[in-house]
Amino acid sequence: MHRLARLFVAFALLCGSAHSPALAQDKSLIVFAAASMKNALDDVNAAYTAKTGVKISASYAASSALAKQIEQGAPADIFLSADTVWMDYATAKKTINESTRVNLLGNSIVLIAPKDSKIDNVTIGQGFDLAKLAGNGKIATGDVNAVPVGKYAKAALEKLGAWQAAEPKFAMAESVRAALTLVARGEAVLGIVYSTDAKVEPGVKIVGTFPADSHPPIIYPVAATTTAKPEAADYLAFLRSSASKTILEKYGFTFLIRPTS
């Protein structure tokens, strides 16, 4: 009996030693990020996993949808929003750890058309007639009442005096990537998206850039959620690093902070 007990203990210890490295490596984080971040953040996440072994599961959607999902209890360790409004919303709902919040990135909005469109080199300024430019076609952007890119687009068009005439022609998409796809497929003759989105979609071309002073500054804040795992702090530090900056700038984002390492 004693021999059996000793064998059992030895077996248990062996199993424990076999499993403990696997448990140590089985760390993971869930990142909720604005749809426009997908390509760039996938690369950042791959670099982070290669460096630390921590797996990152990223969920991409409109910032409005993500903020509400987190509010409803969806498991997330990090929230990266495409505007400050939805991060402020999360702060007000006490779903993010405000002390970890930082304004990480900047972007710009552009007018796009399908790659083979005859529309080219549009000067966007006061009195710009977007409705005339679209003709009988649709203009795609994110929902102007909720999705950050749509809100930036509407603000710019209102300031330039082009919103009222163009509004009936708008096709409101659930995210900036959905709007991008509508233009790439030719289902919309024009679209308003972030410059970073236009650069990763071969089916579209940039035909004009909105003046930076025509809309509120485009700021991407990031923060850990109130339910974040301890590893979230290290991930946020990596987002602020030079390695992350190099990747994000390659995709056209503006890095708004001084890299921490």
Automatic annotation (TrEMBL):
InterPro entries: ModA, ModA/WtpA. Keywords: Metal-binding, Molybdenum, Signal. GO terms for cellular component: outer membrane-bounded periplasmic space. SUPFAM superfamilies: Periplasmic binding protein-like II (SSF53850). Residues 1-24 form the signal peptide. GO terms for molecular function: metal ion binding; molybdate ion binding; tungstate binding. Molybdate binds at residues 36, 63, 176, 194. It comes from the Bacteria. The keyword Lipid biosynthesis does not apply. GO terms for biological process: molybdate ion transport. The keyword Ubl conjugation does not apply. The complex is composed of two ATP-binding proteins (ModC), two transmembrane proteins (ModB) and a solute-binding protein (ModA). Belongs to the bacterial solute-binding protein ModA family. PANTHER family: MOLYBDATE-BINDING PERIPLASMIC PROTEIN (PTHR30632), MOLYBDATE-BINDING PROTEIN MODA (PTHR30632:SF17). This is Molybdate transport system substrate-binding protein. It comes from Bradyrhizobium erythrophlei.
